[in-house]
Specification:
Elements lengths: L13 E5 L5 E4 L2 E4 L17 H21 L3 E5 L5 E5 L3 E3 H11 L3 E5 L10 H11 L8 E4 L5 H20 L1 H7 L28 H9 L3 H14 L15 H10 L4 H36 L1
Parallel strand pairs: 1-7, 1-8
Antiparallel strand pairs: 2-3, 2-6, 4-5
């Protein structure tokens, strides 16, 4: 209902990308996920999880929960994100797939796609493909829902990819769009003239050596970086003009600044995370370059 508001038809197309790697079930309407016991409420990378692996894990997790509920007199033991142990009387137990099918009864145009991506590293090529193929043919105003566990890195990454695609839609038919779609502020996503604050530190501007080399080799690499940077800022925190809670580019710089004051074990972890996030930023610029080329080809 929040997505449709008072204007968008409830039977219209709605796209939902679920970026979680963890299998989920719903107990009495509340989600519970399976995670490694040493990663409860903590940062966790679960590896190369695919849609099929996640779907199979969810079905197995549902069986395990059913079994444990039966063995425990209709109650299920769990641990919340604060590591507090819970014992829940199970009145209803459903898989995520079953919950989504129930939602589709009220919103028949809903398309739900699992795109399990890593927390820090770049999405796989297939992940970009799934998002693009799902959005192909949708209207400019088609609602897109993106979720992960908390709404931080993975959800922000998905939002940046989806917004870059939306810009492709606008750019591909830009000249006639302003006149034909009431209420569209095309300048919001038109990023050719975007200029980042020159007073920012080079790290916060994303001027890493590997990025500078990429820009030098890409056709209009500077334009692609500007494109990616504005979308990242729009999906970032309020201090960069966004409405989100994660800044994919500046988060790298903040991690780098924290590196020197940490102990060896923390440095090893943070180094891997920094490298992964730089890789993600690198791929966002590459994807922006691809989208710009696709938009130019569509106009021609």
């Amino acid at each position: 209902n929040k997505v449709c508001g008072d204007t968008y038809p409830k039977d219209g197309p709605i796209i939902w990308f679920n970026l979680r790697q963890e299998p989920n079930v719903y107990v009495n309407g509340d989600p519970i996920c399976a995670r490694p016991p040493n990663k409860i409420g903590e940062y966790a990378e679960l590896g190369a999880i695919t849609r099929d692996i996640q779907k199979a894990n969810e079905e197995e997790f549902l069986k395990v929960c059913e079994m444990r509920k039966t063995e425990n007199g209709g109650k299920l033991k769990a641990v919340d994100i604060n590591k507090k142990e819970l014992e829940i009387e199970v009145k209803e137990l459903k898989s995520l797939s079953q919950v989504i099918e129930g939602v589709k009864e009220k919103f028949p145009g809903l398309v739900h796609w699992r795109v399990p991506i890593c927390n820090s590293a770049a999405p796989l090529a297939g992940d970009f493909d799934i998002i693009c193929k799902t959005l192909v043919g949708t209207a400019i105003n088609t609602p897109v829902i993106i979720n992960d566990q908390v709404g931080l890195s993975r959800a922000t990454t998905g939002c940046v990819v989806a917004c870059l695609f939306k810009e492709f839609q606008i750019s591909a038919s830009f000249e006639g769009l302003v006149e034909t779609v009431p209420g569209i502020n095309a300048s919001l996503l038109k990023t050719d003239r975007y200029v980042m604050n020159p007073e920012k530190d080079t790290l916060f501007r994303g001027e890493f050596e590997v990025v500078k080399e990429l820009i030098s080799k890409l056709k209009d690499g500077a334009g692609a970086k500007n494109n990616a940077d504005k979308i990242i800022d729009l999906n970032g925190t309020p201090k960069t003009g966004g409405t989100g809670i994660k800044q994919l580019r500046e988060n790298i710089a903040e991690s780098k600044l924290s590196y020197e004051i940490m102990d060896d074990a923390a440095q090893a972890f943070l180094k891997t995370k920094i490298m992964d996030n730089i890789q993600k930023y690198f791929y966002m610029i590459v994807f922006a370059a691809y989208i710009r080329e696709a938009a130019a080809a569509a106009r021609e």
